[in-house]
Amino acid sequence: MCHVIVTCRSMLWTLLSIVVAFAELIAFMSADWLIGKAKPSSSEDVDNRTGGSQEPYHPTLGIYGRCTRISHMQLSRRDTLCGPYAENFSEIASGFWQATAIFLAMGIMILCTVAFVSVFTMCVQSIMKKSIFNVCGLLQGIAGLFLILGLILYPAGWGCQKATSYCGPYASAYKLGDCSLGWAFYTAIGGTVLTFICAVFSAQAEIATSSDKVQEEIEEGKNLICLL
């Protein structure tokens, strides 16, 4: 018989697992990993309404995507174009970024799988006498290691030709040059930290769903068990 068991700790772990998976996925897909040096507006970049020059813009560069201004769209309000600069994996700008993409993708796939499974832990807490929470926590720890490897390798690719075109000639491995880090990089770091928090917290979720109070309510014949 399926017993739906919901506790504060198990629900919090489930929500955190989903948030972490989405945060890492959004960061990976974003082009806002590096914010390039400001590109000055040319004399032709004139605002139609005020007649003044538009402010300098900052192109952004991601692992496989970028956002930049298109010349024939400079006079419109939508003057930037975002999309992948690499049509296939081999066209990613740096070998280090290729490795970063692999490690991040592996970590994100594991996190998305755990996030999907975590929803069903309300009904199924163990498989083959093994706690799903503990298994998921172990997988989240492994995913966190993949994410760390990806984030460590990413700055090593800052000296590639694509990065120097955005960050200037002084950019090199682990040196930003004229660039600054975008929100996607910080989101990936924050998501990695939360991944390890989730891995540790999974043990608390397992304890909460197998506590004496839960067992008492199961023995009383309740199918829906909600505990604070």
From TrEMBL:
Family matches, as InterPro entries: LHFPL
Single GO BP term: single fertilization
Membrane topology of this protein: Multi-pass membrane protein
Secretion signal span: none
Source organism, top-level taxon: Eukaryota
GO CC terms of this entry: membrane
Keyword annotations from UniProtKB, A to Z: Fertilization, Membrane, Transmembrane, Transmembrane helix
Similarity comment: Belongs to the LHFP family.
PANTHER family with a match to the protein in the record: LHFPL TETRASPAN SUBFAMILY MEMBER 2 PROTEIN, LIPOMA HMGIC FUSION PARTNER-LIKE PROTEIN
Stated name of the protein: LHPL2 protein
Source organism: Pteruthius melanotis
High-level lineage: Eukaryota, Metazoa, Chordata, Craniata, Vertebrata
